Amino acid sequence: MKWYRLFWLSSLVPAVSCAPSAPKEIADLILTNGRVYTFSWDEPALDGTPSPLAPRSAEGWRPDAEAVAVKDGKILYVGTAEEAARYTGDATRTLGVSGATVIPGLIDSHTHVAGLGELESQVSLFGVATEEEAVQRVVDAASNVPEGEWILARGWDDSDWASHYPTWDLLSEKFPKNPVVMQSLHGFAVWGNKKAFEAAGINKNTAAPSGGRILKDAGGKLTGIVLDRAGRLLTDAIPEPTPEQFRGYVKAGLERMARDGYVAVHEAGVDRNLMTALSSLESEGSLPIRVYAMLSARDGGLCREWLQKGPDPGSDRMLITRSVKAYYDGALGSRGARLLSDYSDMPGHKGTSGGEYGFDMELVAEMMRSGFQVGVHAIGDAGNRETLDFLQSVVDANPETRDLRHRIEHAQVVHPDDFARFSSLNVIASMEPPHCAEDQRWAEARLGPDRVKGAYAWRSLRKSGARLAFNSDLAGSDHDIFYGLHSAVTRKAKDQSPPDGWYPEERMTPEEALRGYTVWNAYAAHQENETGTLAPGKWADITIMDLDPLVVGETSPGKLFEGKIVATIVGGKVVYERDKE
Ligand SMILES: [Zn+2]
Question: Which pLDDT score is estimated for 16?
Answer without folding.
Answer: 41
